[in-house]
Predict the structure.
Amino acid sequence: MMNEHGKSDNPIVPRKLPNKGNMSAEAMEERGLTKGNSSEQNMLRTQGRVGVQTALGRIRKAVEKDRKQKLTALYHHVYNVDMLRESYYAIKRKAAPGVDNVTWSYYGENLEQNLRGLSNRLKRCAYRAQPTKRSYVPKADGGKRPIGVSVIEDKIVQRASVLVLNQIYELDFTGFSYGF
């Protein structure tokens, strides 16, 4: 039965036991939906991605329109919180931590607060990259190869910069760039 215009319908609650698996407490209770949007947390990531893709698309269109145009106002795209969030999710989750020993999952526990702080430091030009953790990996010939591991915030900023710069230089190198 439909409610009047502008009002929500009553939620449909299953009264049958779930098939295989553990039965959750809510499965047999006749509870309605919780107040508020249960998908609110996911909407933030989705909306951010749309905004980031739109901003990157505008950069790309400007370059397509006039390849000799000088783009002088790109930094605000790098410190945009949505761009930093997208960059965070693009980083390898199992990557080795840097000198601060902060892992991807640990940084993500307070992700929004961490990204806002990072964005503010970038905006004020107060952000300073941390030292790189140096490790040596043995080579087949008996030598050692130096490997530098950045801290998670440096990786986020680097990825955000790459996302912005890719929109500019991808058009120049399309057709003859083979990844080296």
In short: Residues 26-50 have pLDDT under 50 and may be disordered. The radius of gyration is 23 Å. The first helix runs from residue 40 to 65. Residues 41-173 form one domain.
